[in-house]
Write a structure and sequence with these properties.
The protein is of the alpha+beta class. It has helices at 7-26, 43-51, and strands at residues 33-37, 54-60, 63-67.
Length: 71
Amino acid sequence: MVSKSNPTDAVRAAVGPLFAYSHFLYGFDKPKLIALFSEPVGTGYVDFLQTLGIDSIWWENGACAGQALPS
């Protein structure tokens, strides 16, 4: 959850568990990773997540928005 419009902690809190779950629960058959946020995290963090292979989705203006990596 993005708290007080500070996405840094939210992004940090999402990345670690995503990689841990992917490694320990799926092994070599890696799932698509998606980080969900309560509000936009900004283009810098969206780009950062994409470099890690993580899509990002957030809640904005009463609807889901986000950035998905090309399939």
